[in-house]
Amino acid sequence: MCLGIPGEVIEIMDDHPDLARVDVSGVRRAINIGLLEGESLGRGDWILIHVGFALSKIDESEAKAALEFLEGIGQAYEDELNALRESKIE
Amino acid sequence: MTRMRFVDEYRDADKAQALAARIAELCEPGRQYKFMEVCGGHTHTIYKHGLEDYLPESVTLVHGPGCPVCVIPMGRVDDAIYIARQPDVIMTSFGDMMRVPGSGDTFFDANAAGTNIRMVYSPLDALKIAKQNPDKRVVFMAIGFETTAPSTAMTVLRAAKEGVENFSIFCNHVTIIPAIKAILDSPDLRLDGFIGPGHVSTVIGCRPYDFITRQYDKPLVVAGFEPLDILQTIYMILVQLSEGRCEVENQYSRVVPWDGNLRALGVINEVMELRPYFEWRGLGFISHSALKVREEYARFDAERIFDLPGVRVADPKACQCGEVLKGVLKPWECKVFGTACTPETPIGTCMVSPEGACAAYYNFGRFTRTRVMEATRS
Ligand code: SF4
């Protein structure tokens, strides 16, 4: 739960403007973007996700570096991704 | 003599060694430096990559209290299990909490004896379970620093908006600044600077650390989570010390805005307020160090809904988590480390979460240390 994980915004959901469909290491899930209100956010943008919520917008190179790092830490990141897979935020 | 040759598997080893050399140059001969990494995520990186091996002997890193699972006192785990045992309750929790021992049981043990405590990834998943089970009372075990508090607060606002009245939170959110202050005020530890938490700072920003530089004359540099981030942060702290400066600096500005996330702070403030005091595992009672649900949202507050026993439980005698959380002891100095206390059978919380210093050291650090010891012997 302490890991901030980067995800790429696929689309902002029309029917739920505070939700975005996000790709996190190949896992696609709805993520709440309500805490980034006021920031322009759209397809291709990268966000840092904690427990289903985007906490900050980050740039692509930061996201890539963070992902590489997370993939290197192994089990803790696997656990986080598995938890995300189970998650069905709506 | 340097120790850095023992860490060769790390891909940026060249850059790390270059930084290590600059760090070594900045250390005054004969002076000892002690820096605290506040955040458990940093502890994890430091052990995983054997970063201590890159540092001169005169630089010591000590762990701070920044692991939210580690600081939950046993009495609160007992209270959560008490809630879970009430009729028609579904308790929900982040996976990290499931193996944390209370005075008797963990959440897993409680489930084996009949409670329904479910792991969730997000508080929003807990809210969804509430909507799917209108005849149950669904409680979310809310833990974490300012990184997770906004998410819990947003979920409560959502529950209020949608009228999900069978949802509540058991609020155990803690705030990082009072914990740092408690450590600065504790007489057992002399520190020279802080490696500041990265993700907490995305929410609170860098300003709240000002008092550390002004009142306590210690530099603090907010740091990212990669090995090079941490080495660069140590370098930045040493530059400050060598120039006689003492400031808050932001090594992680690519993610952490100086002012934090004002919207997230606003949401926390709308739903929660500071408690007069809260018990931290190992650190004891710290005033204004945790959050509770505001009166306006009382109907979503498990502490008001359930008549909690609220019994204070002393930590087990063998457990030295308090000393580890304050950075006074290294994990391997605890008497039960790796023998009675392992990730499979944790006695203390620091062995449970992957961010806990004992777990991080158990999983990675001891290998590095063994290497170092073997090398010094040969
Ligand atoms: S080894 Fe176990 S009991 Fe000792 S400080 Fe670490 S977690 Fe606590």
UniProtKB/TrEMBL annotation, chain A:
GO terms for molecular function: carbon dioxide binding; iron ion binding. One of its GO terms (biological process) is protein maturation. InterPro entries: Hydrogenase_HupF/HypC. Gene3D superfamilies: 2.30.30.140. SUPFAM superfamilies: HupF/HypC-like. It holds the Pfam family HupF_HypC. Transmembrane segments: none annotated. Belongs to the HupF/HypC family. This is Hydrogenase assembly protein HupF. The gene is hypC.
UniProtKB/TrEMBL annotation, chain B:
The keyword Iron applies. It holds the Pfam family HypD. One of its GO terms (molecular function) is 4 iron, 4 sulfur cluster binding. It comes from the Bacteria. InterPro entries: Hyd_form_HypD, HypD_1, HypD_2_sf. Keywords: Iron, Metal-binding. The keyword Protein biosynthesis does not apply. GO terms for biological process: protein maturation. Belongs to the HypD family. NCBIfam families: hypD. This is Hydrogenase formation protein HypD. It comes from Planosporangium mesophilum. The gene is hypD.
